[in-house]
Write a structure and sequence with these properties.
The chain is an all-alpha fold. It has nine helices and no strands. It is elongated and about 65 Å long. The two termini are 24 Å apart.
Length: 212
Amino acid sequence: MKKFVGLLLCLSLSFFIVARAAKPSHPPAAAARTTQKKATGQANAEALLNDASRALAAMIKDARADSGLDPDIARNKPFWKSIQLIAKNLKTAKTGLAAESHDCFKGIAEARRAQEQMKIVWPASSVVARAYLDQLARSKGIPPARAAAVTASLDRMDRLQSGRERGATAVLDQLSALATQVEGDAGTANPADAGRLRSLAATIKGRVAKLR
């Protein structure tokens, strides 16, 4: 699961970066003055699209090895449909980039949309919480002190065998309080980070509930 979450985050980040690298070209007059930059940008975009394809291939391999993502199970069909759409649109993006057409931007946009709509219900685990923390750290969507406090508390919680050990109540109470603070942070964050913050808070609360 840890590897799978990391691959999904890698794929998401690849779409963001490649969209920046493959941004629409300048008007003809300006493009004539920036031929070298355009060639470099195209090479970078091609490399990033290849990275996204490799991340997708690795994610598919890992997903196929996960019995919980069996493609024959009805609840998993939306996930695999999204995978097919991502693969199809990455191919469109590569073809468009080679032809220097707007199909490149369309393919990237549709691949990102399919990835964002991917239907996965993540378990309430420390692995998932840390994945959200990593995303938020990259986007600077969480105060460093808050991230450090959550990480330290997760470390302490991961050492618990159950919620009945000596000191367990204090650890779980601290995490619950941090989850509430993270929810509060979402109120002033941008939409993307707000969603991640709320998901992080929900994941922490779910993990705490399992140990209560």
